[in-house]
Write a structure and sequence with these properties.
This protein has 83 residues and is an all-alpha fold. The chain has 2 helices and no strands. It starts with a helix and ends with a helix.
Length: 83
């Protein structure tokens, strides 16, 4: 084989290797994008548990705040009546 042909074959092989990788990336890109969208739109069990815990803590904080407010009002009322 002639040296020029050998160099051309090697260059073509390198070029094709890059093309194959690029084609593979282009072909799999919609699948990767679709799976990313599904990941963004769905909630994992861990996320659901964390969100539920956050919701419960906020509810408990509201209840505690309301309870303290009632107790304070009751103390004031008691002091006015007995004080």
């Amino acid at each position: 084989m002639r040296p020029a042909a050998l160099i051309m074959a090697a260059a073509a092989g390198l070029a094709l290797a890059g093309c194959v990788r690029t084609v593979a990336n282009v072909v799999t890109a919609p699948v990767r994008a679709g799976s990313q969208v599904v990941d963004w739109t769905t909630t994992s069990q861990d996320e659901a548990d964390r969100n539920r815990g956050r919701k419960i803590r906020k509810q408990e904080e509201r209840e505690a705040k309301e309870r303290r407010k009632r107790e304070k009002e009751e103390r004031r009322r008691w002091e006015r009546e007995n004080g």
